[in-house]
Design brief:
The protein has about 220 residues and is of the alpha+beta class. The chain folds into 2 domains: about 130 residues, PvuII Endonuclease, Chain A, CATH 3.40.210; about 45 residues, no CATH class. Helices cover about 35% and strands about 25% of the residues. The chain is built from 7 helices and 8 strands; from the N terminus they run αβαββαββαααββαβ. Strand 6 and strand 7 form a beta hairpin. Helix 4 packs antiparallel against helix 5 and helix 5 crosses helix 6. It is elongated.
C-alpha cells in the first residue's frame, strides 16, 4: 500500500525530485523558451514521480490548486524573473493570503546545442504556508498603522492609496475586519490585475529565516 502524501513528505520529495531533475537532459526541452510550457512539463513529471510513491488527490489549473487535500499549489518559474499568476478571488487575498500554501520551484534552463538537449537546473525550492502568502508591503504597512493606534478611517485611506481593487464601501468593510482581525505579515509581492501577479524574490531571500517560509532546497 502506498502511504498518503503529507505536506512534510511533499517538501521532502520536492527536494529529491529537484536534485534529480537538475541532472536530467531532455530533448523535448531543447530550444524551448515558453515558461508556461516548461512549467507544465515540470509539473507533470513531478506529479508522475509522486503518484508512484503516494496516494493523493491530484488537482490541476482547470480544477484549482495542484494538491487540494493538502491545500497547496505548485508554481514553476524562471530565475530570470521569478513570478507567476493566480486567479483573483477578492482584494482580501492581498491582506490575508491566497487561502492556500505554495510550493515554488525556480529553475535555470540551459541548452546543449551539440547534443540538442535541454536541462532544468532547480536553483531554489521554497514552501510558503498559506498564512504567509499575503503581500509584504500591504501587510507591513497595515501593521505599522495598527501599531500606531490606527482606526478604520486610517486603514481605509491606506487601502485606497494602495489602489486595492475595492470601492469605498468594500474598503470600509475590509478595514473593519482588519481592525478586529489583525493580518499576519505576508512575504509575496502581489500586483493588482485581473489575475494576481505573484513575485517570489522575497520568499527566496527569506526562506529559512521566517516562520512559514521554508527553504526546501
Amino acid at each position: 500500500m502506498r502511504p498518503e502524501l503529507t505536506v512534510q513528505k511533499l517538501c521532502a520529495e520536492a527536494k529529491r525530485f529537484a536534485e534529480r531533475e537538475s541532472t536530467v537532459a531532455d530533448q523535448s526541452l531543447f530550444g524551448v523558451t515558453d515558461g508556461k510550457r516548461v512549467g507544465t512539463y515540470f509539473e507533470h513529471k513531478f506529479q508522475a514521480f509522486l503518484s508512484e510513491k503516494y496516494v493523493y488527490e491530484q488537482g490541476n489549473s482547470a480544477r484549482g490548486i495542484d494538491f487540494p487535500a493538502l491545500n497547496v499549489d505548485m508554481k514553476v518559474t524562471s530565475h530570470k524573473q521569478p513570478q507567476s499568476s493566480c486567479p483573483f478571488k477578492s482584494a482580501a487575498q492581498k491582506i490575508y493570503g491566497l487561502g492556500y500554501g505554495l510550493l515554488v520551484f525556480v529553475y535555470e534552463k540551459t541548452d546543449n546545442p551539440v547534443a540538442k538537449m535541454g536541462t532544468l537546473n532547480i536553483v531554489h525550492t521554497t514552501f510558503v504556508s498559506a498564512e504567509r502568502t499575503a503581500d509584504y508591503q500591504t501587510t507591513t504597512g497595515l501593521s505599522a498603522i495598527l501599531e500606531n493606534d490606527g482606526n478604520v478611517d486610517d486603514v481605509v485611506a491606506f487601502l485606497l492609496d494602495r489602489r486595492l481593487p475595492v470601492d469605498e464601501i468594500q474598503a470600509h468593510q475590509l478595514a473593519q475586519r482588519i481592525i478586529g482581525e489583525r493580518p499576519q505579515i505576508g512575504y509575496l509581492t502581489i500586483s493588482n490585475a485581473l489575475q494576481w501577479r505573484l513575485q517570489y524574490r522575497r520568499i527566496i531571500d527569506q526562506a529559512g529565516m521566517v516562520d512559514g517560509v521554508v527553504k526546501v532546497m
